[in-house]
Amino acid sequence: MSCAVTCTLAPETWPFSLELLPQSTYVVGGAVRDALLKRVGEYLDLDFVVPCDPVEVARQIAKLYKAGFVLLDPQRQIARVVFKSATADFARTQGDSLESDLRRRDFTVNAIAYNPHTKQVFDPLGGCADIERRVLRMISPANLEEDPLRLLRAYRQACQLDFTIEASTQATIRTLAPYLVKIAPERIRVEIGYMLLAGHEGSFWLQQANKDGLLQHVFSHATPESYKYLIGVDKAGVRLAQIWPRLGEMLYSAVRPTLKTTWLGIAKLACLVDPNPEVAEIELQELTYSRAEIQAVITALKHFPRLCHSTMSLREQYFFFQQVGKVFPTTAVLSVAWGTPVEGIADLINRYLNPDDLVAHPVPLVDGKQLMSALNIPASPLVGQLLTEIAIARIEGKISTAAQALAFAAQFVKENCG
Question: Are 131 and 36 in contact (CB under 8 A)?
Fold first, then answer.
């Protein structure tokens, strides 16, 4: 193992002491693969195979360091210790040896073990060579069939690692693709989510996964053209971000702090579901997307066509911004992906990015209580209508003060409400 890899997996960087692990403990899986690739993440995710009592080892570490302890699988003796910036999973060796354990895994690059005590690498399946070749190669078709999510995971890992999928492995995936229907939708959604986050590479691998038969039952209304639009969304996002860096920040930010999906990811989801918002809502519910994500996709589907086909009056712009709200960046990138010239929506983008623009971000001249008091009217939908008409009159330059707003409202009531 190279010095760089040793440093990446150096126990000195762990949140607990190496001395608490038995001598024949090995680090396995993605942590070893990433170390060989010199990939360093902000969060440390370690998987250990321990020859005996892995649950007790994990429990002692959690107790000593006041960390979180989770018993993941009591029958298979798998436990997790959760630290502030790291997670460590502990499991018993599956099978009668470490090699038999590694042979149960998905791809050779994930079947490499490292002993932190001796600093020795155990690579019985040629995973290190495949890492150098940057290729994902299955260990066996039976392993993929055992957990069909591994079929989709191949595309996600190829995307994240910038790998290719070895030809016979990809052929096997095509053959086993129907087995993916056995997997819970939420597990599939997580794999798709990683690719939605990964820019052009993620769009390419989603497109490839669909060609290989993995996504037809996931996005049943998507066509090959739908997947081509994913690339268009990525290109539109890059172009808009170059012109308006602030808009780019919004596109690549999360819909909510608790979600990983970005506003650009929402645009991609909108490409893959049925264009009918009611049908799309059902699709996304079945895939267990959150209410916030579903609502964002539906809003984008309903309103982005407005940007594609016509110019809007100030009044129409006002209602458009009120209806799309914070989904505006998604509607903008979708419209450009669908062929709308950037120049055609530049004014709307500038309005949205200007917090003082009264069309995109109206500031009331008066509130409902002032209206009810001045006009002697009860609380009713009329109050909301008046507030809207006042806001529009203001952006059209007809009024500019609170007194003018009240006078305008009184005249509106007289002319429209008797």
Answer: yes
How many Å apart are CA 123 and CA 139, to the nearest integer? 13
pLDDT 10s digits, 93-149? 887 899 999 999 999 999 999 999 999 999 999 999 999 999 999 999 999 999 999
**207 and 225 together in one domain:** no
On whether both 16 and 148 belong to a single domain, the answer is no
2-39 pLDDT tens trace: 445 556 688 888 999 999 999 999 999 999 999 999 88
CA atoms within 13 A on the CB side of 73: 8
Query: Which one of 193, 218, 243 terminates a domain?
Result: 218
Tell me the average pLDDT of the chain: 94
The residues, any chain, with a CB within 8 Å of residue 272's CB and separated by 6 or more, are: 219, 222, 226, 227, 230
Query: The domain spanning residue 192 has which CATH number?
Result: 1.10.110.30
Q: Which of 173, 198, 218 is the last residue of a domain?
A: 218
CA atoms within 13 Å, Cβ hemisphere of 281: 10
Residues 357 and 226 in one domain: yes
Q: Tell whether pTM > 0.85.
A: yes
Buried residues in 23-49 as b, exposed as e (16+ CB within 10 A):
eebbbbbbbbbbbbbeeeeeebebbbb
